C-alpha cells in the first residue's frame, strides 16, 4: 500500500502517517506493507489525486481545496464565521455534512478514511490599526487563494481580495510594511497560525487577529477499487489504525499551533514593529457574522454546498 503526501515527516500529518503505517503493519501482522513517501518525493500534491484514481497510489491526504472539483460541498469549511471551534468542526464531520462528502468521494473513485486538521485561519495586516471590527478591513487588500467563496467573503466586507501566488506573499507583505499606505498590492493575508509562523509572515505585518473565520483540513482517502478487494479483517485493521492516527494528528496539530502562537507572541513582545495580537470576542465575531452570512444563500444550491448542509452545520453550534 503506497501513501504519497507533501508534508515533512516531523509535521503533524507526517507523524500521524508514520504512526498509521506502523499500526497497519502491526495489526495485519505485516500482511500489508506500507510504503510511505513524504515531501512530494513520489507525486506532487497537485498530481496525487490523479495517481490515486489510477491506483499508482493507494492512500493520499491532500487539503480540502484539492477536492473541490469532485466534492464542492467541502466549500462549507470556507464559509466565514460558520464554525465556532474544533468541537463544532468534528460534530459537522459526523453529521450529514460528512456523510455527503463521503458519498461524493465514493462517486469519484475514492473512500474517505477520515478528516484531519490543518487549522483555523487568522488575519494579519500591515496597516496602522488592527483588524477587530468589520469596518477595520474595509479597503484593505487581502491575499486569498483562488476560491469564489473567499472572493465573496472579502467583497461583502468591502475589502479587496487579491488572488496571488503563495510564493510572492512574503515579499509583498514586506513592501507593505515599508509603506503602510492605501496603495499596496496587498496589506495582509489569511492563513493558519502555523503557516503564518513557518513562512514568517508575522515579521512583515503589524497586527495578527485571532479570528478563526475559516477552517482548513485534509481529507484522507483510499482508492475505491483497492479498498473493495481487501478482506474485511484487513479493512477493520486499516480503519482502527486510521482512527488512532486521526487522534494523534489532531493533537499534534493543536500542539504545534499553540507552540507557534507562543513564538509569535514572544517576537511581538521583543520587536515593536509587530506590536499587537488580538483575539476576537464572541460579541465581535457576531458583528462579522451578521455581515458575512449574507453570502451563504449563494451556496444553497446542492452543486455548490447545499441549503441542508449549511443549516445543519449552523444547528450544531
Give the secondary structure arrangement, pairings included.
Blueprint: E1 2-4, H1 12-27, E2 35-37, H2 48-53, E3 59-60, H3 86-93, H4 96-107, E4 110-125, E5 141-144, H5 148-156, E6 160-163, H6 169-178, E7 188-192, H7 193-198, E8 207-210, E9 215-223, H8 224-228, H9 232-270, E10 276-279, H10 282-292, H11 307-315
Parallel strand pairs: 1-2, 1-3, 5-6, 5-7, 8-10
Antiparallel strand pairs: 3-9, 4-7, 4-8, 4-9
Helix pairs in contact: 1-9
Task: Describe the protein's architecture and organization.
- The model has no long low-confidence stretch (mean pLDDT 95).
- The chain is of the alpha/beta class and 317 residues long.
- The chain is globular.
- Helix content is 41%, strand content 17%.
- The protein contains eleven helices and ten strands.
- The protein folds into two domains: 2-117 and 217-253, D-Maltodextrin-Binding Protein, domain 2 (3-Layer(aba) Sandwich), CATH 3.40.190; 122-213 and 258-315, D-Maltodextrin-Binding Protein, domain 2 (3-Layer(aba) Sandwich).
- The longest helix has 39 residues, at 232-270.
- Helix 1 (12-27) packs antiparallel against helix 9.
- Strands 1, 2, 3, 4, 5, 6, 7, 8, 9 and 10 form a ten-stranded mixed beta sheet that branches.
- The protein starts with a strand and ends with a helix.
